[in-house]
Batch of 2 targets.
Target 1
Amino acid sequence: MNTNESPFGPVIYSYTRAQAVADGVQVEVTKTAQEAGIKFPVFLTRTVFDSFVAVPEGVTGQDEAGRLWDICWMLRFAILRSHGHTDRLPVALYVRNDNRAARLVKLIASCGALDIDDPQPAITVMMPDED
């Protein structure tokens, strides 16, 4: 028996973060996150980006930069509030997707490896039902 072999056997299929970004499944927002004080690379799922960063047609007084800043800032607040004892954090913020009042949105931030071959920490912000 080869001692270097995984006890789970060979990898059948893998989908890297780099592939997810290239395919548009995830959106890298590290630059804005760094401006908000977050040291790790940060990614949003496409669902989060399309639902809460992209401005719906006809909505006034909103822009993508401001909406992205709100997510990154509230992510920073969730990290500071967490005391570092978990790899999954709730992130809550108010988002206005119409020309009425903003509504409370609850997201999940998960910290894990940047990619399959890069173990440095990275954060993914996703919908509660995404994983």
Note: Residues 22 and 73 are 25 Å apart (CA to CA).
Target 2
Amino acid sequence: MALSNKDPQEIKGELQAWLQAQLPDATDVTIDNLDVPAASGMSNLTILFDASYRMPSDPPGEATTEQLVARVAPEGPAVFMQYDLVKEFRVMQALAERTSVPVPRARWVEEDPSVLGAQFLVMDRAAGEIPSDDPPFTVSGWVLDLSPELRRTLCENSLGVLADIHRADWRALGLDFLVPADGSTPFDAELDLWKRVYDWGRAGDTNTTVEAGFTWIEENRPVDDREPVLNWGDARVGNMMFAPDMTVNAVLDWEMVSLGAPEVELGWWLLLMRHHTEGIGAPLPEGMLTREEAIATYERFSGRPARDVDYYEVWAALRLSTLMHRAGNLMIEIGLLPPDAPMKYNNPASQLLAKLIGVEAPTGEAQSFIGNR
């Protein structure tokens, strides 16, 4: 039975039996406070739960209690073509155990779909608040309740952690499996991947803005012979957990992890901030870094100049527009949008992409699955 059709008590029982198998020496294994948040999105599903068990080494009468999170791959149609939670697990485990990057400790990964209906990983639960995407943190929510000084600190700390990720020695961490197997460069591999994502996600449609973006990316590609760095893949404040003082407590969502130029990540960070302001017609909240300030801040933390940032921001807009086309088709498929909905062609990402590369933007009112409420 699909996870979405299961009663929480059934999920609890399956997880409890599975956890007992992972801890063969433990007794009194129990799961409590299981919660499947409604806002899990169109990507991985999330299950929050508390696990309690007794180990032979525990003092008499005492038990170990942990707050855990299971990330479950989608069971059916989803935003991405494929999900590799084993890859995510290996990256998160290496970073948590051997670097200062604040990544939740990955505990187990399960490839057998018979347990919960799809592969999943289990990690420690981090504490903190996450800037919201829906409604965007730029128009509503706790980020707007902060002082301008704390909003600035939030941005600075997120870019500092981004620089820390890029400093990680991915070879020493045993992450060589991220090197493209066919001998191509990391960017060639990513470009080929995103062309395939577009061909798959468009489902026979022709998105002239996205196709103009791919042409622009190939015609304007900079020369870059630097050693690639670890790319988190979804570098934005909305994938970070913040403490009250705006320290980054956790870096989340590693499903797009790869190798590449550091500016690939910086371009994504900048584009997503632009998307949540200019893209939806909202002002940049006071205190949050402007584009120029963000670039300078990243350069300060990384200790090196940022190169070809404009190019990599276009690359970010192209990838987000590709995902939005897929999301539009998916929402039509599952009945959340009517068949003639314009979102897949005309959305904040495609509007920004058209502007950045100087082509005619989609006409009409842009549509998105995030709101300004």
Note: The chain has a mean pLDDT of 93.
